[in-house]
Amino acid sequence: MKTMPPIKAAIFKVLFLLIFTVSFSSCGEKSKRENSKKEAFNKSKNEEIETSFFIEMGNAMNSMISQSQIAQQKSSESKIVEVSKKIADHQNQLLLQVNEMANKKLIIITDISAAHKDELLELNNTNGSSFNKAYLSSMTTALDQQIKLFEQISKRTNDQLILKLVLQYLPEQYQLLRETEQIKSEFN
Predict the structure, then answer these.
(1) Residue ranges of the DUF4142 domain (predicted)?
(2) What confidence score (pLDDT) does residue 40 get?
(3) Is 145 a member of any domain?
(4) Domains contained in the chain, number
(5) Does residue 161 form part of some domain?
(6) φ/ψ (deg, to 5) at 155
(7) Residue 49, C-beta contacts closer than 8 angstroms, at least 6 positions apart
(8) Which of 80, 97, 139, 184 could form a disulfide with 75 if both were Cys (CB 3.0 to 4.6 A apart)?
(9) How many angstroms separate the CA atoms of 37 and 31, rounded?
(10) CA-based nearest residue to 94, from 155, 147, 157, 156
């Protein structure tokens, strides 16, 4: 049996180690690429969730502000006028903050959606006690929907600014909902 000269053996060892090293490093790059694809997908999913939140919240706030302004003009009941002012003020503050956050994320919140416009027209066409009942019913539904939106986004996002917004406004939303439901029960 012939032995290999030491130079050839050294060349084969170096060549083998080089192939071995390249193979393992390319495997690591593949897993890094897969991880970066997963991260990009998760980021776009989170961005989609946040975008949906901002748009839905913006539409609801615009609608509530418009309905509350109509209630301030049409209602003869002082309790309804008072709660409608609170709701409008609260929603305006919230809208300013949500718009600011959305603009930073390059999200544009448009005016009231078609569904909310229909609600607004329907409310505007009612009078007297039927107006009061319709307004209070609409506000309790809208506040309840906003609370659900806040709760959903708080579970689905890690964005600290959104979570801070939820912590700041969710207790006030519950308070307005309780107050509106109490007035609604007085008129039923």
Answers:
(1) 59-182
(2) 47
(3) yes
(4) 1
(5) yes
(6) -85, -25
(7) 153, 156, 157
(8) 80
(9) 10
(10) 147
Residue 68 tokens read as 């509350």
The residue segments making up the domain with residue 139 are: 47-187
Answer whether 17's CB lies under 8 Å from 10's CB: no
Q: Is residue 34 part of a domain?
A: no
How confident is the model over 49-98, as pLDDT tens digits? 888 888 889 888 999 999 999 999 998 899 999 999 999 999 999 999 99
Query: What gap in Å lies between CA 103 and CA 106, rounded to an integer?
Result: 5
pLDDT, tens digit, for every residue of 2-46? Answer: 665 667 666 767 666 667 666 666 555 555 555 555 554 455 778
Q: Please determine, for residue 124, whether its predicted confidence score (pLDDT) is greater than 60.
A: yes
> b/e per residue, 34-44, with b = 16+ CB within 10 A?
eeeeeeeeeee
Q: Is residue 42 part of a domain?
A: no
Q: Which residue has the tokens 């066409």?
A: 125
What is the value of pTM for the model shown? Answer: 0.73
